[in-house]
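User: Second chain of the day. Same drill as before.
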Amino acid sequence: MQRQPLLIDNQEARAILCMLKTNVHDHSVYRVKMDELKGLVESLGIEVVGEVIQTRYRSFAKYHVGSGKVKEIRKKKNRLDANLVIFYNILRSSQKLNLMMALDIEVIDRYELTLEIFDQMASDTLSKLQIAAARLEKQTPFYKLQASVNYTNDRPFFRAGGEYAFHGQLRELTRSQARINEEIDKLMEEKSQRIWKRKNELGYPVVCIAGFYNAGKTSLFNVVTGDNKPVSDRPFTTLSSKYQKRFIDYETTVIFIDTIGFMLDLDPRLIQSFKLNLLDIRSSDVVVLLLDITDPLLTLQLKINEGIRLLREIGVNRSRMLIIFNKLDQAPEREEIIAKELSLDVYSIPYMCISAAEKIHIPEFLNLISDRIRYLKENAPEAVELSPFRRAETAVNRVLAEYPDIEVPSQMMPFGSLIRTILSQNTASKNTTTAYNRLQDQVGVTPIKLLEAADEAIKEAIKPSGMYNKKSKTIKAASKLIIEKYHGDLGQVFKLPFNEARDRLMEIPGIGPKTADVTLMFSNNSKVVPVDRHIARIAKRLEIVEPKASYEAIRSAWQDAATPDRFRELHLALIRFGRERCTARNPDHEGCVLRNICPYPEKVMETNQNDAESQ
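Assistant: Same format as last time:
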């Protein structure tokens, strides 16, 4: 397929490729990565006119590369008439903006380049949604930073009232992000149900053809299924998974899946953006890691290691993997030497060479799949070292199974839910209920009644919840703002997209992300997992997140591990689990359903042993 050259300001793109090489002892691997970057760039019709590489142990904060290299890039840009700079490294928003201002030229990184290729190849709604979500995830922080710089003086005079003009633009970005994520969440629910039906009702084993882009995954899929899906020499032709049933022998019928390709140093955010594809890979019985045998041996070694790492990160153990080298017709001499040259035996994964184009060894390939499926039926899969994502996913399933009859509170009116959430901070639920009922009886839970009530009356009513001085001030401030800004009707906020409604709630004094999330979940049925101290403690002990992870990081980790229809039950079950099992002091390790996936007990034992030895 002929690709029209990418245009920058109505001119054909001419790019300079840049890389910061942080491994000073690397004299060959970086070259493989730069060659891959060049291939991706040229697939978009962009002419590569030069490259700049800097070697340093760590990156610079301002530009990622040093200021001297920035000057070198600028000189090369002027001399070669380049209008685009592309970094192999992933840039922070501040680094991208600083580079654009210093070079006076468009600057993108490998993440954005990959999305541009995805965008060109996308042909269905699902792919476009996932690409849009990934792009907003990357670009929203940059737009915020760029707008804050460009519109610093966008007010009548210093400290004038009102909001900056660019806030409206940012809210529109937030709304777009919320709409896209809601659509993807719906598709996730539907896909989970389809996978369950495929595995449990139909009963057919599932074989997923994964691997690196341009390895011939779709060609192999067409050959083994008899299908005629479009094939292209451009990278990432397949973005949405394809499915087809195939009879192999008298006792083996399988469903083949052709899914999205990998690339070296694939950004974790891109992986998570295509979580619908990950569901296919993770739920498959056998996963084929397909590679191009014509690649240089060093490139093949890197791709094997990276492919196995990615598959294990997704949750596929080695016993479910097959390493298959395609395009044997283009390099037949490699069939005899590939195993020795790449030391394939050390991986303990079955492998073979084939050619999808010439149908070489295709019957043997199908027999290998059939044998592997029979082997897996007779032998329990090896224990896989769980990644943080898989650990979270396992925890979600087990905790929900532990509390199948979790009681979900009835939906409340928006303002009442907000007040109840404020009262629930740092206290038990029974104290919250008592305080709320007393407030309702003695004062009344409406913005006007609470604003007009005496401070002492509110404090007296909410005493059972504790911290009544602070909470009474928050209740007063919230009531005042809701009357002034929303005429006493908080329901107006709940009609907005989730992210915007959340931002509006957090504008209320004393309302943080947890209170906003809880209010939206219980009053608006919003799909969110609010994080309290119990939920945060469980995430950190399971090492799902870093020890000093932010609220947003913990919330995202739990939400990525569950489907949206389970968010509310998960929130309540995790709180109960944190109170009954994973307590702050003296957690119940022996009776814990997460015992065999939780690193925390081992660390406690190690600490106790060290303390004993030091005495």
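Confidence is low (pLDDT under 50) at residues 1-5, 156-160, 608-613.

User: Great, on to the next one.
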